[in-house]
From TrEMBL:
Transmembrane segments: none annotated. This is FAD-binding oxidoreductase. It comes from Candidatus Abyssobacteria bacterium SURF_17. GO terms for cellular component: cytoplasm. Keywords: Oxidoreductase. Residues 6-356 form the FAD dependent oxidoreductase domain. InterPro entries: FAD-dep_OxRdtase, FAD/NAD-bd_sf.
Length: 391
């Protein structure tokens, strides 16, 4: 392992690997990435992989939109399987979301994203199985899709390696040396790396990594569950992803006639220690999934539960990520707190963080509203939907 580097990235999830690749592509030549377990073994490996641009904040919509074109061309750019499927997305709103749906659709069209509002009577054109009770308005985004988070992470890592990045799996950062307010080195389980720039992309462990430079980052970890279901007649890959605001849930097709279901249908529990939590879906969750599907879909009584899992999401006070430098320790950057929506943003997270580190500012999208100091300044960056904090 190298003993000095221009940049050390802590975390081999989708964000750390995207940052490593983009830094190397922008000309940074001496980068080390540390991953304490294996690539994508944190939140990334548990992700549902949904990709959409439906955000109520233009900054996030722009990041998601630009990221989507990277996902679309991923297999050519990285010579790796991304599993990207375009299946479209239907967002079902109650009376509380009508105004938001209108605003988001106008903003999407302004940014050149294909999107349209859908009256409930016309929903069967997009998804014949949805019961229409309680839906006031919907929107449809034909280019939304999903991809394989593991494949994408390994693809970014492969691209980074080809550009000279040293990726060390099984190596944990255990401390960061700071002298006169500036980062000097990262201490690891395999030795010390002298560096003046560190990126904290440690996902659910990012608060611990922040503590290594004396920061108390406002990051909290919640347990988020997913289930694989299968209707008797199967669920074709061509079916759109559905976000259903009546029950605050979502589902998308998966190959083999399966569907993956997620959402906040039971209260999310905190994870105190991301190294030690139950990764199995709870009985209460499984029972609620069945009830929610029954209430939102026609003919769902023949739906079979196949398996389920739980993974950690790292949330901030406004459910949006922290991207940028930390004032207290020069050379220390944070890319963490992605809640349940960091996968779809990952290509632009990497690009913007690389631009920020190399040039002092992100050019592709202005990410300053996501700076770490925003909470202290009272400038929370939250969704305009009261009941959909991740949009
Ligand atoms: C169940 C679930 C469903 C989701 N569904 C979606 C979705 O449909 N769409 C979407 O966009 N997003 C989704 N997300 C969110 C998305 O998965 C995350 O936002 C994203 O994966 C975060 O990536 P990351 O790289 O920040 O974190 P992680 O993937 O957790 O990576 C952090 C890495 O850092 C390593 N690490 C930590 N500490 C150290 C250390 N000291 N030294 C070395 N390495 C260290 C860890 O081992 C880990 O591999 C979902 C998340 C979950 C849990």
């Amino acid at each position: 392992m190298k003993q000095s580097a221009d940049v050390v990235i802590i975390g081999g999830g989708v964000e750390g690997c995207s940052i490593a690749y983009n830094l190397a592509r922008d000309g940074c030549s001496n980068i080390v990435l540390l991953e304490k377990k294996t690539l994508a073994s944190g939140s990334t490996g548990k992700s549902c992989g949904i990709i959409r641009t439906h955000y109520s904040q233009e900054l996030l919509m722009a990041m998601a939109h630009k990221s989507m074109s990277v996902f679309r061309g991923f297999e050519d750019e990285f010579e790796a399987k991304s599993g990207f499927v375009t299946n479209g997305l239907v967002f079902l709103g109650t009376s509380e979301e009508v105004e938001g749906l209108r605003d988001v659709t106008v903003m999407q069209q302004k940014l050149g994203i294909r999107a349209e509002l859908v009256h409930p009577d016309n929903l069967p054109k997009f998804h014949s199985g949805i019961s229409l009770d309680g839906i006031e308005l919907a929107s449809y985004e034909p280019d939304a899709g999903f991809a394989d988070p593991y494949g994408v992470t390994v693809g970014f890592a492969g691209g980074a390696r080809r550009l000279g990045v040293e990726i060390n799996e099984g190596v944990e950062a255990t401390g960061i040396e700071v002298k006169n307010g500036r980062v000097e080195a990262v201490v690891t389980t395999k030795g010390r790396i002298a560096t003046r720039t560190v990126v904290n992309a440690a996902g659910p462990w990012a608060r611990r990594v922040g503590a290594m430079v004396g920061a108390d980052l406002p990051l909290f970890v919640l347990r988020f569950q997913e289930s694989v279901m299968r209707p008797a007649q199967g669920y074709p890959l061509s079916m759109p992803t559905v976000f259903d605001q009546r029950t605050i849930c979502y589902y998308r097709p998966e190959s083999g006639g399966f569907m993956i279901f997620g959402g906040a249908v039971i209260e999310l529990q905190p994870i105190e220690d991301p190294d030690n939590y139950s990764e199995k879906a709870d009985t209460e969750w499984v029972e609620n999934v069945a009830n929610v599907l029954l209430s939102g879909m026609n003919n769902s009584s023949d739906m079979k539960y196949v398996r389920g899992w739980a993974g950690p999401i790292t949330v901030t006070p406004d459910f949006n990520p922290i991207l940028g430098p930390l004032e207290q320790a020069e050379g220390f950057y944070i890319a963490a707190g992605f809640s349940g929506h960091g996968f779809k943003l990952s290509p632009m997270v990497g690009k913007c963080m690389a631009e920020l580190i190399m040039n002092g500012a992100a050019r592709s999208v202005d990410i300053t509203p996501l700076r770490a100091s925003r909470y202290k300044e009272g400038k929370y960056f939250q969704s305009k939907y009261a009941r959909a904090p991740l949009t």
